[in-house]
Amino acid sequence: MALYQDQVVTLKARPYRDHDALLTLFGRRHGKIAAVARGVRRSKSKLAGQLHPLTFSAVTLYHGRSSLDTVTEADLQKGFPRIAEDLARLGWAMVLADVVDQLLPEREASAESFVVLLSALDALNQRRHAASVGLRAGFRLLALAGFSPDWSVCSGCSRAINSGPITVDVATGELYCGVCRPESGRPQDRISLGSLRSLQYWLNDYPNKFDQADVKGQMEEELKRLFFRYLLHETAKPLKSYEFLSNIDRLAEAPEGGDRT
Ligand SMILES: [Zn+2]
Prior knowledge:
Layout: E1 2-16, E2 20-27, E3 31-37, E4 56-63, E5 69-78, H1 87-103, H2 111-125, H3 130-144, E6 166-169, E7 174-176, E8 190-191, H4 193-204, H5 217-235, H6 240-253
Parallel strand pairs: 3-5
Antiparallel strand pairs: 1-2, 1-4, 2-3, 4-5, 6-7, 6-8
């Protein structure tokens, strides 16, 4: 039983009892932490406003016999106010928080995942292209959580992939180059060589860098489809944040005044 300090991104916060909140925090040194913030929903609480979802804070926590730790102090470091200005930025930030929440184990530090998440929130807050930041960070988080195939070698000929289109089998994690392409592969399982190269580059580059060229058009569509199919395969249930993001995409595609159902 002890007090400890960490820097955390608040992934989730939900009301608890009259004035408390149940939090899912992602700590730089302690990994994912379930915690309660007592009295946080009272306006006079010193914790009020310090622990909103998708913000970065320095906290002191008490770890006792309960599985829930208690936040005793919190000091907001970055609020990322510009993320909520735009639905696509907000949607992708929620997806990344969900990925960490759903796929990373409790109380296991992952310093690189922390850097990826924090840097992605920073990049979104700087109004960078939301899908490019989200996909880059999302694929990296999947890989760090151990849910990612080897994106470089063909499962058919065992060589480095140098021809497209590439067929990806999400269920088995197998990839096939353009030459070995299985007959059974569906068009929606394919990505272009350009998309694969972007993915390989993202996974090998510095985890805190988001200044690469944006992915747009067909590449964005292919990589988004692939990312969410992988995510669905690993989480086995659609994430609310994914539904939110899909609805935004549909709104963006609907013609002005057109049918949006
Ligand atoms: Zn091959």
